[in-house]
From TrEMBL:
Names of the cofactor(s): heme
Domain of life: Eukaryota
Family matches, as PROSITE patterns: CYTOCHROME_P450
Annotated heme binding sites: C433
Molecular function GO labels: heme binding; iron ion binding; monooxygenase activity; oxidoreductase activity, acting on paired donors, with incorporation or reduction of molecular oxygen
Protein name (database record): Cytochrome P450 monooxygenase
Keyword annotations of the record: Heme, Iron, Membrane, Metal-binding, Monooxygenase, Oxidoreductase, Transmembrane, Transmembrane helix
């Protein structure tokens, strides 16, 4: 199937392409001429260029480097212009708490996302829709499925799926595929009763493809133009290539979510679809809307679990001294005769420290998802006009040397006194990630078990160590480690015997465990 980007590239040969660009340029200039002049008491920031604002700076350099420089020069709260959009970036955890947590009643909405929300997901993606009645209804259902109490009941499933990881790694060092199966099978089983028994199945790739649609859009010239200058979206369909791209992505996304919804409704085992359908809110919700709600939850869960577990494997390979300390803790608390369990969490502080430090060291969502305020506000004497895009700049927060001395070094021990260290990986306020408990616990159990069972180290090819560049990242909405190699060897003959007894999971095992939740 033709990819979205290839589809977009092919549009360049469309006969009306030149006319399209001319009309877009005229509409853009007209729209910009109607914009209000910058207010006098906005937070400080770099001087914007006419029309494009500050976007030009992030074309020449990475956005991360730009933001770090700007915040060093102008302080913890700065103003930018993204085309027609007014943006405030926050680099202080404490400022973010003050605005997004304490003033959450007016800072819990989202900016307008023309492509990712309106055109690609029909304004039904829980993560990016505005703070309105639909969001409140979706969030109530999500909370019932994903709060701390609900996630505790999913431990038997996480036990089976993480066992399968240990078993599969005896036969393959393709840990990325094995972790992708783990992440996908966990959320698909919970969402729809769909268990994945093989690491070479297509479902993880299908999920990654659908997850990539909004990011491919952001990488397209047409789509960036629309988000920077929303007035451009008024162009008629025949002259708007981005609308074709979005419609293609929307059809694929809707088809996948509806296919999964049907599977969930017909499944014999308990799943999120059954639970949501049985609720008062779910009974009133159209099937397509419910499909998007559950689909958004499983997409976000898959992406988060896979991204963070791969990041932790990289950290373990690059910092064997941290792995050794974690294994000493596991040997002391768990011993060598059984696997770590969820009940061991409170007695394994160093494992928690490794996870928290990984999410700080290379934040999976470097700029979070922007907030928007629903009324004018004043903070520290600065005006923040209604509708401003508010970026909780987690990347810059994570490398603040005042909070994290030697910030570019992976140091789990900094988290052992948790009261002294701020944490922002899951967002802020009412828009905090609803799946944080599931994502964290799924990461904890599989990483604890991998460390218990295996020595994880550099891979060797033709007798030479395969090096890993720790900062070789792919930046879209997320910051994910690019593919790398690692070696997994049983820690001892005793551990090898224990691993041989795992034997993987069977469909009936999964259904029985999830029904016992």
């Amino acid at each position: 199937m033709t990819s979205n980007l290839a589809l977009a590239s092919g549009m360049a040969e469309y006969p009306l392409f030149g006319v399209s660009l001319l009309i877009i340029a005229c509409i853009t200039l007209y729209g910009v001429s109607l914009c209000c002049k910058q207010r006098s008491f906005l937070p400080p920031g770099p001087k914007p260029l006419p029309i494009v604002g500050n976007v030009h700076a992030m074309i020449r350099r990475s956005p991360m480097a730009c933001f770090q420089d700007w915040h060093e020069r102008f302080g913890p709260i700065i103003t930018l212009r993204y085309g027609q959009r007014l943006v405030v970036s926050i680099s202080s955890y404490r400022v973010a708490q003050e605005l997004l947590d304490k003033r959450g009643v007016i800072y819990s909405s989202r900016p307008r996302f023309i492509m990712a929300s309106e055109r690609m997901t029909n304004n039904m993606n829980l993560a990016i829709i505005p703070y309105n009645k639909r969001w409140q209804n979706h969030n109530r259902i999500a909370a019932s499925l994903l709060d701390a109490g609900a996630v505790k009941r999913y431990a038997p499933l996480q036990d089976l799926e993480s066992n399968r990881c240990l078993f599969d790694l005896q036969h393959s060092n393709d840990f990325s595929k094995i972790l992708a199966r783990y992440a996908a099978s966990t959320v698909l089983t919970l969402g729809y009763g769909i268990h994945l028994s093989r690491s070479d199945c297509n479902e993880p790739e299908e999920l990654e493809k659908i997850n990539a649609h909004p990011f491919e859009a952001l990488g397209s010239m047409y789509c960036r133009l629309v988000e920077l200058f929303p007035v451009v979206d008024r162009a008629p369909y025949v002259l708007a290539p981005w609308k074709w791209l979005a419609a293609h992505a929307q059809r694929e996304t809707t088809a996948l979510h509806m296919k999964h919804l049907a599977a969930g409704m017909s499944a014999s085992a308990w799943n999120w679809v059954h639970e949501a359908k049985a609720s008062k809110l779910g009974q009133l919700m159209p099937d397509e809307e419910l499909a998007y709600l559950i689909g958004t939850l499983q997409q976000a869960g898959f992406e988060a679990i896979l991204t963070v577990t791969r990041l932790l494997v990289k950290a373990i390979v690059l910092h064997p001294e941290c792995a050794e300390r974690a294994q000493e803790e596991l040997d002391h608390v768990v011993g060598s005769n059984r696997l770590p369990r969820m009940e061991d969490q409170n007695r394994l502080p160093y494992i928690h420290a490794m996870i928290n430090e990984a999410m700080r060291w290379q934040p999976p969502t470097p700029f979070a998802i922007p907030h928007a305020n629903t009324q004018d506000d004043v903070y520290m004497g600065y005006d923040i006009p209604k509708g401003t895009m508010i970026i909780p700049n987690i990347w810059v927060m994570a490398f603040d040397a005042n909070d994290f001395p030697d910030p570019y070094t992976y140091k789990p021990e900094r988290w052992l006194d948790a009261n002294k260290v701020p944490h922002s990986s899951f967002g802020f306020g009412r828009r905090v990630c609803p799946g944080r408990h599931l994502g964290y616990s799924s990461t904890f159990i599989v990483i604890a078990r991998l460390l218990w069972a295996y020595t994880i180290s550099h891979a060797y090819r033709d007798g030479k160590k395969v090096e890993i560049d720790p900062w070789d990242l792919k930046f879209t909405f997320t910051a994910a480690s690019k593919p790398f190699d690692a070696s997994f060897r049983a820690r001892s003959p005793h551990h090898h015997v224990a691993l041989c007894g795992k034997g993987g999971t069977r469909e009936g095992d999964t259904e029985r465990e999830i029904d016992r939740r």
